[in-house]
Design a protein that fits this description.
The chain is mostly helical and 474 residues long. The protein starts with a strand and ends with a helix. 37% of the residues are buried. The site of glutamic acid has 8 residues, from α5.
């Protein structure tokens, strides 16, 4: 069998992780079988259509490296095809024009409700439907039938006949509904595996009935469990703050990290492995290992994953990617200096938009108020318990020692370690105080490396300044 999969978004807005994960799984199934991945824009809901959305969808897929082999196809450009197939349905006696107004249908619905019965359109077929012509909705004539089938993810499924009803296939604006158009397109485009979100599951019995009516063989169906929001309860949605996938690009996440993270939303390879390269995913992915229950979107885990991929990046490459993310204070700094800074913060960076906060002190003197406050009222556990005069003494001693250093990293380390011994103090005290003095922050890369990159002149002048600030408050 030729494997052909598709991603069929409705261009009604931006893509978020939930939608793109569907695309990723479809892409993986195609790639691992040397098959094709097709992009189809399901733009038949004219009221919800957003023009820029198409470009946005394509930009998102390209950024993630989910290139499509065919398309984009647009359903709005294929109306005559759907009309032909609508005629076929009519010929087979499986569709009827439904000229009733929405108000009339609403009345029937209310009657059923009042009688405590579920409303089924098939119980209310018009007696003498007019011949179908464009402008009148066309409705599929369904059969009362139970279905059992195998879903590639959910396993054996079955529904009773109450799950099937007559439904509109062509609307009054001549556009087909999703329910109809996707069946025709999947057939004509030779789609072998349909992967889509759980929200379509209740509609599948209707689709099965339509396949039969049209004499179309159904493709393999794979129902993907929801991606759930942070609370683990509700489906991740734009309404509840799901982010545009391109926001992650803007914030300097790496596409390979998003791909690995999205694959792990509801899938694993049966081991503890949590991070996967694209190549590994193509090799290992299988629909059979997609879990059946919802997968929680956890931004912390995404950050952790991105941090992992950032640490793996060769410095040169990361430097190329960092353009546009530097703090404005870095504008004057040279390339070698920036690279040295990046090499230090790479360890702690979770995504590139964190670069300014993690690196600013390398380019600009930290605010005096901050340094003074952190030294006078430390938050570090050990520093907190240390007398201010003692801290001042340690800084003075460090100033003297570092003044005699050649500022190579081993020499800085040796001098600082010497001080630890001499004063019988701890890194949690001496290094913490030094860190605040030169960076204005309780956290920074390793202290000797930080001093080395900052350079002798700046390091010493910041130490002098910190001592005078602390002296004032003591
Ligand atoms: N247009 C549908 C959507 O955006 C596609 C569902 C499908 O993949 O069949 O959700």
């Amino acid at each position: 069998m030729k494997v052909r999969t598709r991603f069929a978004p409705s261009p009604t807005g931006f893509l978020h992780v939930g939608g793109v994960r569907t695309a990723l799984f479809a892409w993986l199934v195609a790639r691992q079988a040397n098959g094709q991945f097709i992009l189809r824009l399901e733009d038949t809901d004219r009221a919800r259509h957003v023009r820029e959305s198409e470009q946005h969808i394509m930009d998102s897929l390209r950024w993630l490296g989910l290139e499509w082999d065919e398309g984009p196809f647009r359903q709005s450009e294929r109306l005559s095809i759907y009309h032909e197939w609508a005629e076929k349905l009519i010929e087979k006696g499986r569709a009827y024009a439904d000229a009733r107004s929405p108000a009339e249908l609403e009345m029937l619905r209310n009657e059923s409700r009042a009688a405590g019965r579920p409303f089924l359109a098939r119980d209310h077929r018009p007696d003498n439907p007019p011949a179908w012509e464009p402008g009148v909705p066309l409705r599929f004539k369904s059969e009362r039938k139970a279905y059992a089938w195998k879903d590639e993810v959910m396993g054996e499924l079955s529904f009773g006949p109450e799950a099937i009803d007559d439904f509109i296939v062509v609307k009054s604006d001549s556009f087909p509904t999703y329910n109809f158009a996707h069946i025709i397109d999947d057939h004509l485009m030779g789609i072998s595996h349909v992967m889509r979100s759980q929200e379509f599951l209740p509609s599948i019995p209707r689709f099965l009935n339509l396949y039969e009516a049209l004499g179309i063989e159904k493709p393999a169906l794979a129902t993907l469990p929801f991606v759930l929001g942070q609370d683990g309860k509700k489906k991740l949605s734009k309404r509840d703050g799901a982010k545009d996938i391109l926001d992650y690009k803007r914030e300097g996440y790496l596409p390979e990290a998003l791909v690995s993270f999205m694959a792990s939303l509801g899938w694993n390879d049966g081991t503890e492995q949590e991070i996967f390269s694209r190549e590994e995913l193509v090799k290992k992915f299988s629909l059979g290992r997609v879990q059946r229950s919802g997968a929680k979107f956890d931004e912390q885990r995404l950050n952790w994953t991105d941090g992992h991929f950032i640490r793996q990046k060769p410095l040169e490459e990361l430097y190329g990617l960092s353009e546009g993310f530097w703090p404005e204070q870095a504008a004057e700094a040279g390339e070698a200096y920036r690279k040295a800074v990046l090499g230090l913060v790479q360890e702690r960076l979770k995504f590139l938009a964190e670069l300014p906060d993690l690196s600013r002190f390398f380019f600009a003197e930290p605010a005096g108020g901050e340094v003074k406050e952190l030294l006078a009222n430390p938050i570090d556990k050990q520093l907190k318990k240390t007398d201010q005069a003692e801290v001042l003494g340690l800084l003075e001693a460090a100033r003297t020692e570092l003044g005699q250093s050649d500022f190579s990293e081993p020499d800085i380390s040796a001098k600082l370690n010497g001080l630890l011994e001499k004063f019988n103090t701890k890194p949690g005290i001496l290094f913490a105080a030094l860190r605040i003095a030169v960076t204005g922050s309780p956290a920074s890369p390793e202290i000797a490396a930080t001093l080395r990159v900052l350079g002798k002149e700046k390091s010493l002048s910041r130490l002098d300044r910190a001592m005078s600030l602390l002296g004032q408050s003591a």
